[in-house]
Amino acid sequence: MTPREFFINPADYGLPTRDELVAYRIWDTHFHGFYGSQTPLEQYTRNNFYVERMGIERSISLEIGGTLDAPLVPSPHDDAIRAILEKDKDRLSGITPIDPGFPDESCAKMDKWIRNGPCIGIKYVGGNKSGITCSHPNNDAIIRRAAELNATIYIHTWLKVGGMPRLPGRDNNPGESTPMDVAKLAQRFPNVPMICGHSGGDWELGARAIRPYKNVSLEFAGSDPHSGSVDYAIKELGVDRVVWGGHGPSRSYATELGKVLDADISRADRMKIFGGNFRKMAAAIFRQKNLKIEV
Amino acid sequence: MKHIDRRSFLKNSLLTTAALSLPGGLAVTPAAAASAAPAGSAQATGLVDTNVNLFSWPFRKLKYSDTKSLVAKLKKHRVVEAWAGSFEALLHKDMDGVNARLAAECRTNGGGLLIPFGSVNLAWPDWEEDVRRCQEVHKMPGIRIYPGYQPFDLDHPDMERLVRMTAERGLILQVVFGMEDPRVHHPQITVGRVSSAPLIAALKNTPNARVQLLHFSGSVRGEDLNQLMKETSAVMDISRLEGNGAVGRMIGSAPGMTAGRAPVERVLFGSHAPYFPLETAILKLIESPLDAKQLQAIMQGNARRLLPRA
Lengths: 295, 310
Known about the structure:
The complex is a heterodimer of chains A (295) and B (310).
Chain A: H1 18-24, E1 26-31, H2 40-53, E2 56-61, H3 78-87, E3 92-98, H4 103-115, E4 121-124, H5 139-149, E5 152-158, E6 161-162, E7 167-168, H6 179-188, E8 194-200, H7 203-210, E9 216-219, H8 229-237, E10 242-243, H9 253-261, H10 267-288
Parallel strand pairs in A: 1-2, 2-3, 3-4, 4-5, 5-8, 8-9, 9-10
Antiparallel strand pairs in A: 6-7
Chain B: H1 6-21, H2 30-35, E1 47-54, H3 67-76, E2 79-86, H4 95-109, E3 114-118, H5 127-137, E4 142-145, H6 159-169, E5 172-176, H7 197-205, E6 210-214, H8 223-231, E7 235-237, H9 246-251, E8 267-268, H10 278-287, H11 292-306
Parallel strand pairs in B: 1-2, 2-3, 3-4, 4-5, 5-6, 6-7, 7-8
Helix pairs in contact in B: 1-11, 6-7, 7-8
């Protein structure tokens, strides 16, 4: 079966057809096409079947240069992935993971992969050996460099319940940021846009934590789909502060699209979440790099 | 794009519906089915959703917790029948009250599409009487248990008896393997993990049991799923299948696959609505490369085989 061959008509089930998904101009700000596999290039190619099938316009890979497990250690696949970024630049972008335990090295990596390379932003991964979260003062140099480069900033956050007494966030990995960490960072850099990734997992608490900080957007990928979650985020933050991520291939585009399609919002608002909001955030660096962007 | 127009789609759907619905698996000829196919989307295959719950989720007000609004939502997305459990069954002790309310709600506000699946709690005394009442008083075709929330695991000494009892009564037994990501549980509750091994043993001893696993994906290495598929006749819903093309990968229809982990006839549509968006489960069918026959089986045929239309 080809990616565009369907034996079910989505319109018959109250859902957008592929053409309608394409018209939403979906940008996946949380793409794991190269992650979690011994053969990342094959995985990327295999996943393109679903990118095509579900009408995703652009994917933003979060693991360009190094890996999420070791952000500052070059990966044996770096060169090949870099070549794919160039070859598929009309539909693929990349951000590079950094490690706040090593701010100088992280800034050097940003120079290599963003200033002088193909990437458009940075990612804070889900933990590090130093146990340094994004609220630590170490991050200030990294955020200043990101702002200078107009780089997008994606921060993995979770609030895993645990500990004694049990509370949200007490089972996080060392160095794994919470939405509260993002809030502290955002307070120090009120003019720098940043994305609170995964909505903290616990979106009811995550949205509350970042609510006062207008420079922070919420992204829902990588957590289970909960009916009502996007409605809630829009109520608390406004539609301009919600961005979409797909988290494929480990999460399903079906899971992540369903979160937004569940929300009782207009088509125009869906378009903002599916890509419009992120494109505004990334427009400056796209133009700097002479990459085509239509906001 | 090879566009499947509405007429072709209908033709495929109807062909498969006709083939699967005939006794003994006899197929009608394509010409006969095609000539009987009316135009228009009204004939697209309806979904049987084997996994919805009514009433209030204990920890959050859900968008579709009101039954009438849930039924309207289900109808909007072409669900023609939904097997409904009750969120009350997770924590309540008066199980007959839970089941009576569920039956009444399905009758009163079910819009003709909700089928009540009552619950019993093996940790509460005299659960056998609740099984009897579910069938004889409330006229339910099946039982849904929620181990973990209900304070027992599947190694409970009465588990085998429950499997046997439901089999003897011709009831479907649905076993729920999860409701919510444990990482976002309310801090005040601790929900035990559900282990499938004891269920496999019970099912092997009662081979005629009709058992469906809900919100089940199996362990990371998949031994439990393999064992369930090879050694029992249990079926499963799709609500917990995750990752791009997950349904196709489960049945082996994803690109590059030559075999799946479960035969298509063991996989049923289930949404976990209203906790999960209904859209998510339907999109999984669209995202996975499934042909008309596979779609028909998952959307309706397999459920109808387990529970023929009333």
